[in-house]
Amino acid sequence: MKILAINFGGIGDEIFFLPTLISLKKEFPNSQITLALEPRSKSVKDLTNVIDDLILVDVKGKNKYIELLKLVYSAWRGHFDMVISSGGNKLISILLILTGIKKRYGYNTGKLSEILLTKAVKLNKNQYACAMYHDLISPITSQKTDLPEINVEKQEKIPNSVLIHPGVSKMSIQKGMVKTVTAEIWAKTVDLLLEKGKHVILAGGPDDKEVIETIRNKTENKNFEDLYGKTKNLKDLAILIGKSEKFICSDSAPLHVAVAMGTKTYAIFGPTDDKKLIPQSDMVTPIKANDNCPIKPCLWEHRQTTCNELKCLEISPEDIVNQVLQ
Predict the structure, then answer these.
(1) What share of the chain is helix, strand, coil (3-state, %, to 5)?
(2) How far apart are CA 107 and CA 278, in angstroms?
(3) For the segment 171-190, what is each residue's pLDDT rounded down to a tens digit?
């Protein structure tokens, strides 16, 4: 069985998609799974052994349609038995039939999808994203994987440790999506945790350079462990998260890595919907402002960029620390 899975989006989207791929592998243990995804998310392959190969498709670039034609060509060459694709665009069913793959599964986007797909699955966005993606394979298997699983062994915990990963992707910032508190709030959070005797560890990726430098400059107490730049890839970050007793982060990809690692996690949520982005579990606590905004969560539900007021992110360092120390 050769399976082509298509899922465009950021690294967080690919981590959400992992339970779907894991269940497919359980159903077809001898299958070969190829994942078509955006180049920015290719590091997901470092976290799992269920993906045998990748097809990189730059759908955000200038040559989007040429890239999609290359995907169709790769699908023809790959001689796949089955294709599963996420996404609610009505043209996806046309893309899938162009691949020539006999068994085609995607979301029901109307009559065309019902005609062109082997099975058009109802798209239910009002649930945890992992479950939403997993619905795609409900006609194929009764296997059920609820949470992302990654190939990182359980780590020995650093006593009394709190790991902070404050950043979000530069792409979201460039698109006008503000999803976390300011660097100054993070700096004060570090100071308060150190006052409480916690072993504070600071980490971040290339996109987080500016916020990390601000935290370094604004903290009054420099007795935190600065590991910025020490995690070279997602797997390194997963190991560090696994070693930490508690983890504080923004609504970003490290949050979903932490879910897979089973580390007690506290995530800042402002304009986005925590019910769709984290599992209903005691292991993950959303930290939210008491802003009483009538349209919260608004990002993606009501608008494509965040508003100027950002009352949903008026979260104090004390609010964060009190939640973590409960």
Answers:
(1) 40, 20, 45
(2) 22
(3) 787 788 889 999 999 999 99
CA distance 225 to 159: 13
Which domain covers residue 60, as residue numbers?
Answer: 2-137
The secondary structure of 99-131 as a DSSP string is: TT-SEEEEE--SHHHHHHSSEEE----SS-HHH
Residues 130 and 218 in one domain: no
The closest alpha carbon to 201, from 239, 175, 148, belongs to 239
Tokens 């910025």 belong to which residue?
228
Are the C-beta atoms of residues 249 and 265 closer than 8 Å to each other? yes
pLDDT at 170 over 80: no
Crossing angle of helices 234-243/253-261, nearest 10°? 50
Tell me how far apart the alpha carbons of residues 154 and 254 are, in angstroms, rounded to a whole number.
Answer: 17
Is 281 within a domain? yes
CA 192 to chain centre: 28
Residues 70 and 6 in one domain: yes
